[in-house]
Design brief:
Number of helices: 27
Distance between the termini: 28 Å
Order of helices and strands: HHHHHHHHHHHHHHHHHHHHHHHHHHH
Largest sheet: none
Helix content: over 70%
Amino acid sequence: MDLVVRAAAERSDWFCAQGAVRVLQAAGEFERAWAVMKPFTETGWLPAVSAGADILLAWGRVEEALTLTRPAGEEPSAGVCEVHAETLVKCGRVDEAITFLEPHLRDRWTMRRLVTMTEGQGRDARVLKLLVPLADEARRHQRQGRPHPLWEALDLQTEVLERSGQVEEAIRVLGDDVAARRYGPQNTVQSYTQLLARHGRVEELEQAATGGHAREAFRPLIKAFTAAGRAQDAEEALRRHIATAEYPRNEQWFLIEFLVGQGRFEEAITAGRPTFEAPWESSLQGIVLLLAENGLHDRALQLLDECSPEFIAEHGDWIPSNRWWLMGELGRCREAIAEIEATPGLDAEERACTIAGLMAQDSRLDEAISLLAEHPGHNATTDRAHLLARRNRPTEALAAIPGVTAQRKEQEQRWGPGNN
């Protein structure tokens, strides 16, 4: 802990500060936690200000927390106002927080933060009074074929209706928006189908899935069927749609996910195999990852080994790295390393990081650390720091990571000024 606290101060390392504060607060050492966070709050950076306020509140210094977050100036930014409002809510002053945010609700992020911070606070009726006029305004604009910046109010209105127990009204309101094709950049149809799934409305979901909204409706439909103990109905609905759809790619993937979830791995492979070597619609990588997540690394590796050289050359540039990862998971680390060393054209740092990871899996930590020390790039130094920490050498691990200034300089060299 002393090392992490020192790093937060000497290196201005935000992640060290966060980690130290988390542990210190859990131990009730609020004074020390505040000493770590205070220099970061003085920069005015909002995540640090919010974290500092949380420390002061936990310490019982409520007025100091409110003073820290209170906006200065006549026209504070929406973000500053949101942090202060959230602090008010944490102090139990919910109505005051809502009143404070009212003038700023034409910022869509502030509107969403209002909904988030008032959840469970018993103020849903008041929040709806603020949201409904904004949602209706967005609807009027969309009826006239004009976009509206507050399109998200439609989804937020139904979110608050649902959490306040008005489920039928939430389904009716959002269903009307879907029927009228009032869609924003965030897909209203997706919100509607997820709402239906949460409440087991299988019939409405089936109507959406077969009525032009297959992409958004089938995954929630499968979830609702499965939750109701009707897995066979889910499969039949999917297969019927795949058989008749003009472009069934998404639904084929839903079927694969469903079969894997049922433990029917070979059937999932059979369902996906016709697309394995399709140039733009291959399901192979997705199936490989699903198999690996279920502990079937050997079967996943077998699928990769069955790929044609032509597919690998044209579209399978991801296959070698996945093969080596799977070989490592199967305990074939040295064999994978030999393959990597014999593969031409790999970036030197990428090669070193991959080999070092396999060495670490093979209990050769010191060799991996030495290999990574030869490469000064960001990925290699970060990987080396992780391995040094695993080796119980935390001081060296911290020293291996460049400071903030050095990291910014590296980013500017790579991407140009202003991109760090």
